[in-house]
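Standup notes, structure subgroup. Blocker cleared on the adenosine-5'-triphosphate input:
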Amino acid sequence: MIVVRGIGIDKNFGAEPVLSQCSISLQKGEIYGLVGINGAGKTTLMKILLGLQRPDEGIVELFGKEPDEDRGYLLKIGSMIERPVFYEHLNAIEILEMHLRYMGKEASVSGMLDRVGLYHARKKPVSSYSLGMKQRLGFARALIHRPELLVLDEPLNGMDPVVAAEMIQMLKEAAQNGAAILLSSHMLGEMRKTADRIGVLTGGCIRREITEKEEIRDHPQEMEEELVTLMRGGVTDEKTV
Ligand SMILES: Nc1ncnc2c1ncn2[C@@H]1O[C@H](COP(=O)(O)OP(=O)(O)OP(=O)(O)O)[C@@H](O)[C@H]1O
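Run returned:
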């Protein structure tokens, strides 16, 4: 089942084309890794898929249909785009409890804070958190309501290896439970360990998708070299999506 699909998306900022006939789709239960150089358009594509930005051309379908006016689909989505924003005078417990109430879901707030390494700081105001701690709280907020679609823009940025490994494990569990996960990262090694499919965004569209699990996991050196070549705009004989 396809959870989100972008078809033929164009987006320009002024005279600068960022996305050009860009198409992407994610299935239930899959982790899709989006890679590309700085400025390739990863964040822009994610925002368009989430309805945070309008494309100049093209169609987005969420859960099998074009997003409707009542925006009920938002309750099925978790996201973290760029830096997460919070009411900074609240603490982590209050923020996650408020989010769960809004989403109409129940979950263990303490359990989630423990997994992202914030249990010790759970009663401190978010204004006292470091950037990495805010990033972890943003990750927790994106996941805690068990969304069917998760869109995470560089969630592993600035994470230490212990936290990054736990976050990857949590993403895998969410995918096993049926979530479709779109993830961007510059950390090709982490991406290789995490994603079922990797798409290379370059020149405004996804030029290449690496889909075979064996190809992603068993040939790390070759795969990372190929990704870097593609991101630089290099040509391979592979398909354009
Ligand atoms: N609101 C905006 N107004 C003007 N230009 C924008 C806007 N948002 C993005 N851009 C431009 O669009 C291009 C793509 O930006 P985007 O943030 O999508 O790239 P990215 O692949 O996520 O980059 P990074 O890896 O650095 O996060 C960049 O050239 C950026 O300057």
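Discussed briefly. Residues 161-176 form the longest helix (16 residues).
Next: hand off to the docking folks.
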